[in-house]
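Data card: per-record layout.
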Amino acid sequence: MIVALALGLALAIQAWLVKPYQIPSQSMEPTLDVGQRVLVNRFLYHFTDPGIGDIVVFHPPAGADNGVQCGVQHDPGQACAEPTPQRSSQNFIKRIVAGPGDTLSVRNGHPVVNGVEKTDEPYTLPCGDGGACNLPKPITIPAGYYFMMGDNRGASDDSRFWGPVPRDWIIGKAFATYWPPDRVGIF
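The structure for this 187-residue chain is written out next.
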């Protein structure tokens, strides 16, 4: 009986409060390394809106995990403005760089939000010369959507390619790392 109760409590905590996730790719380096483990607050966004700079776990648009890209045709010098309508069952982790109603373009891998380039991003790696490092034609983030980018801007498959993410696809905010021991900490 005690074992069943403990198991039930652990499952309830993961379902509604805090859930662990493992970082699957290099897209969030240097902030989060491949294999690093984070804790995600699953209830915070029931009380407050996601914020610019938050690192979040979410479901990307369907196809983002297997090569299908933007949900609409778009100019090559422009980020994807609209995702595919269905969500993937996969989980991604990225940083929110723009929110509902913001205009966004990308310059040298940095988001330009409402005309202001965010260059004070010490947590990012340089973008390089890839096409998604410079997307000068702005898009407007739809109401209820958030634009995600990985911190490793030159090696991140993110909203630049598959579009902003609806709020209800966001699982929660990453707030701490618990593995490996030398990287334990709170964000």
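Known properties of this structure: The chain has a mean pLDDT of 90. The two ends are 37 Å apart (CA to CA).

See the next section for split statistics.
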